[in-house]
Amino acid sequence: MSVEYPLSQRPSAATKLRRALEDPNAFLMLPGVYDGFSARIALEVGFDGLYMTGAGSTASVIGHADLGLLTQTQMRTHAEMIASIAALPCYQNSPLPLVSDADTGYGGPIMIARTVQQYAQSGVAGLHIEDQVQTKRCGHLAGKELVDKATFVTRIRAAVQARQRIGSDIVIIARTDSLQSLGYDEAIGRLKVAREAGADVAFFEGMTSKEQAKKLVEDLAPMPCLMNMVDSGVTPSMTADEIKELGYKIMIVPFAAVAPAYNAIKVEMETLKKTGALSSSSKTVTPHKVFRVCGVEDSMTIDAEAGGKSFSGGID
């Protein structure tokens, strides 16, 4: 992921993701982001890619639990905004790949094909489609309802054919939530038929042990596998090194921004309500700091290079 390319030869984010999956030494740890600010912070830290969490996006956009309430248009628009940030030249090796939740694909084959086309045109590098019914819920909640295997395969096939039809490198990730209700053998069976339908990566949601995680990689080899690391969920906590050692190619951490944001914001809100002022630690984050994280200096450079005078007096 650290190869430098001349601007004229720079591959797309989807091509970079696909090349990383083919590289036997590559491993991608993708922090979950849910808005432009969390994406900016992750990129400031230096991650090589991002994951757009559906749960976090739903909480951020409409303030609701992850029950499949965001529409395809809302999710695509949100993903496009984050992908555009990851493609800014101020970040090393941009465009950086964004993997995005695409829920159930938002309908039948025609809608799924449109979803893939829209996500690809929006700069998304990879997306995952699952086997829950359309009124889905977070993978770490109980009581999930599933479509049958044939319907799941139809979803994946529609996604793969759409990718081929538009000549895109966008990576199709097949996700199954069937472990909870149908067991390991059925879940593996679903991922195997998804592989036969052309899926690029396997996403086995809700695994319950490290032994199970290891067996999955062995049973699906050489298909690349994705680990969804949701701390305090049903999957035991593991580090990136442990997950890589098990043979996984991608690790997504959906709550990497959501959990600390909740904790920090709640503490500050409680302090403000109790004392009438923010804590001393919050006062160190000035408007200038926030604006610089969000690229104000790049905007100033663009203006100056074009002969503009908007920032001739600076911002300090």
UniProtKB/TrEMBL annotation:
InterPro entries: ICL/PEPM (IPR039556), Isocitrate_lyase_ph_CS (IPR018523), Pyrv/PenolPyrv_kinase-like_dom (IPR015813), Pyrv_kinase-like_dom_sf (IPR040442). It comes from the Eukaryota. Signal peptide: none annotated. GO terms for molecular function: methylisocitrate lyase activity. It holds the Pfam family PEP_mutase. It catalyses: (2S,3R)-3-hydroxybutane-1,2,3-tricarboxylate = pyruvate + succinate. Belongs to the isocitrate lyase/PEP mutase superfamily. This is Methylisocitrate lyase.
